[in-house]
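Supplementary Note 3. Input sequence used for the single-chain structure prediction.
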Amino acid sequence: MASSISVDAGRPFEVLIVDDDAGDVLLIDEALTDRRVGHRLHTASDGVRALEFLRDPDRPRPDLILLDLNMPRMGGREVLAEVKADPSLRCIPIVVLSTSVVDEDVHVSYDLRANAYVAKPTDFDDFVAAVQHIDDFYLGVVRLPGRVA
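The predicted structure, written as discrete structure tokens, is reproduced below.
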């Protein structure tokens, strides 16, 4: 399926991947890089590093955050709570991308204002397809703050 995503505002889409699983980060990277639509991917292996990235004025503001829930030092729930409580960050869409299928994790994520919750598929092709569907929707269909149509 070809992507109809266009890079606007003269800059690539900035995507922050917050996940401590290097294999999942690699799969996400491959799924998005295959799109060839101008993504710049940034990674943080835990919530502390994610917040440092987000609060660093020298770093680009992400257009989308893909957030794992279970990480060392500071988990995804805490990151979600902090980002959505910060007026300068709260409009960045956050998609929770987690191995957890526990109802409580889904409910808590939405209570904390996650924009979407996606369970990581265990099959390689399904995982890549899920990431590409997120990409199609959030970086292709949705109007994001600061992006010219």
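Residues 1-9 have pLDDT under 50 and may be disordered. The radius of gyration is 14 Å.
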